[in-house]
Write a structure and sequence with these properties.
The protein has 14 helices and 9 strands. The protein has 309 residues and is an alpha/beta fold. It binds nicotinamide-adenine-dinucleotide.
């Protein structure tokens, strides 16, 4: 059993902290929002008065925060307090943040004598609640080995992607594939609609052909062929458009920093940016199909062409 501080008890952090508590660890949590702290108390998460207090004396400190600036600020507070006390903790950041801030956080933690790991996740709030997340880890072999059993209590797969920051690199590369492929699948459905092809017929062919991908067969952007996809519940996420835009923006920042040519990633970020600014940030990212229909000159039509006529 470890003593673990969990900082950031939002949509992802709360269920993750609860799963750690369930697996027998001693958890002290903190979030700036008192309501988020209260929500996990009954599940066995003790609440501290600040991030630094939560981390004081803990073996492991986990952060699950919105962006790099929050992670750097919290790690600084935690380390400033710990430097007067016991060094040597393991610091794990599970947030999705920019690669440069992640590497800066590693340096800061290691300078204070801590093991450090960036370990962003995929699997969303459903995976966080069910403890089926995938963790993509960047850091030393020693940090990875120390963290893997704890991460395993919150997820199904824990992958070591290489040195400092490589977990974040894997996350944004994966999500750039996802953002681009969802637009590709959506474009195909919109073209199919215009050509009089039913959603089911296109799904039946593409799902067993070379067009097969997660965006089609797990998160199909039209209602009908896959009853569990967000399209069947008015695009309630799922994975929100605002989060997809965040990840595509991080990918573009990283691409600019290392001079990688990612023209489709750039275009995907631009399309999601416009779609989000039209007030759709809370919709599942597969709702981008409605934006493509509008660009095709249609009012958004969710019905199959044969059903509508
Ligand atoms: P969220 O906004 O629900 O939670 C973030 C929490 O951090 C909030 O409760 C906020 O009050 C707290 N916070 C901010 N600054 C703080 C500070 N200084 N000290 C303590 N608490 C602070 O966001 P989320 O959906 O839980 O996402 C968290 C991270 O996980 C993000 O980096 C996100 O990109 C990533 N992520 C989210 C999903 C998803 O489906 N929601 C999926 C994969 C990855």
């Amino acid at each position: 059993m470890n003593s673990i501080a969990f900082i950031g008890l939002g949509n992802m952090g709360a269920p993750m902290a609860l799963n750690l508590a369930k697996s027998g660890h001693d958890i002290r949590g903190f979030d700036l929002l008192p309501a988020n702290c209260e929500a996990v108390r009954a599940g066995g998460v003790a609440i501290a008065g600040s991030a630094a207090d939560a981390a004081d004396g803990a073996d492991i400190v986990i952060t699950m925060l919105p962006a790099g600036k929050h992670v750097l600020a919290v790690w600084n507070d935690v380390l400033a307090k710990r430097e007067q006390g016991k060094p040597g903790a393991l610091l794990i950041d599970c947030s999705t943040i920019d690669v440069a801030s992640a590497r800066q956080a590693h340096e800061r933690g290691q300078a204070a004598g801590c093991l450090t790991l960036d370990a962003p996740v995929s699997g969303g709030t459903v995976g966080a609640a069910a403890a089926t997340l995938t963790f993509m880890c960047g850091g030393s072999a020693e940090a990875y080995a120390a963290a893997a059993p704890v991460l395993g209590a919150m997820g199904r797969r824990v992958v070591h992607c290489g040195p400092n920051g490589n977990g974040q690199a894997a996350k944004i590369c994966n999500n750039m594939i996802l953002g681009i492929s969802m637009i590709g699948v959506s474009e195909a459905f919109v073209l199919g609609e215009r050509l009089g092809l039913s959603h089911q017929a296109l799904y039946d062919v593409a799902s067993v052909s070379s067009g097969q991908c997660w965006a089609l067969t797990t998160n199909c952007p039209v209602p009908g062929p896959l009853p569990t996809s967000p399209a069947n519940r008015d695009y309630k996420p799922g994975f929100a458009t605002a989060l997809m835009l965040k990840d595509l923006t991080l990918a573009q920042e990283a691409a600019a920093a290392v001079h990688a040519a990612t023209p489709l990633g750039l275009e995907a970020a631009a399309l999601y940016n416009t779609f989000a600014r039209q007030g759709n940030g809370d919709l599942d990212f597969s709702a981008i199909i409605e934006f493509l229909r509008l660009r095709s000159g249609d009012a958004a039509t969710k019905d199959e062409p044969d059903a509508a006529s």
